[in-house]
Amino acid sequence: MVNGHPRPPFWRALTDGHRQELLQIGNVRHHPTDTVIVREGDETDFAIVLLDGCVKVSTHGNRGYQAILGLRSRGDLVGELAGVDGGRRSATLTALTVVEALTLPAGAFRRFLRAYPDAAEILQRTVSVRLREADRYRSAAGSETVPQRLAHLLLHLGASYGKRLGSRVLIGLPLSQEDLAGLILTSQRTVGRVLERWRDERLVETGRRSIVLLSVDELRRRSAP
């Protein structure tokens, strides 16, 4: 955040010259919905700029549960750690929509960052913001109820990816209950119970990987401490 306003995504924060340079050293690829773009544990070492579409960033614990580290969309840089240090992938990237991605080979990306210190600073800020976001998620998991966290999440998804249908808001991402649970660090069963209650109260409508917010104002009240 800068003075209370979110920073622009990595791609938009770069200069036109930076973007042209990266387009020259990278390759544009298209990934269909539900494609695994990179998998946790892989030894691939490229970074990716999302030119269009949305991906989920997830990891699996020892007991097989899924934790979603975040959603990334147009303009975001993903896979940057492996692109910089060449280590194994720390998370899986899965396309939630059709994705257009600029793949940046690790060596060329590192040379770009050395040649353009201002771009390297933008990358450093990107990583720092994500670390702070992760801290906020963990803090919320310890201090807010599941209904509060779920209401916050649905409102955020509606604002970021929603489509207005009169007074309703259709969340334009195919997220499952498991995905929602992973995003707020709880179990799929708990999310299912809350959504069932909210369906009965006419706060939401749900289908197979689809959610419509019926009462945004009431969800805001439910998200309050």
UniProtKB/TrEMBL annotation:
InterPro entries: cNMP-bd_dom, cNMP-bd_dom_sf, Env_Response_Regulators, HTH_CRP, RmlC-like_jellyroll, WH-like_DNA-bd_sf, WH_DNA-bd_sf
GO cellular component: cytosol
Pfam family of the protein (one): cNMP_binding
Single GO molecular function: DNA-binding transcription factor activity
Domain Cyclic nucleotide-binding residue range list: 10-113
Signal peptide segment: none
Domain HTH crp-type: 144-217
Recorded superkingdom: Bacteria
Protein keywords: DNA-binding, Transcription, Transcription regulation
PANTHER family associated with the record: CRP FAMILY TRANSCRIPTIONAL REGULATORY PROTEIN, HTH-TYPE TRANSCRIPTIONAL REGULATOR ARCR
Protein name, as recorded: CRP-like cAMP-binding protein
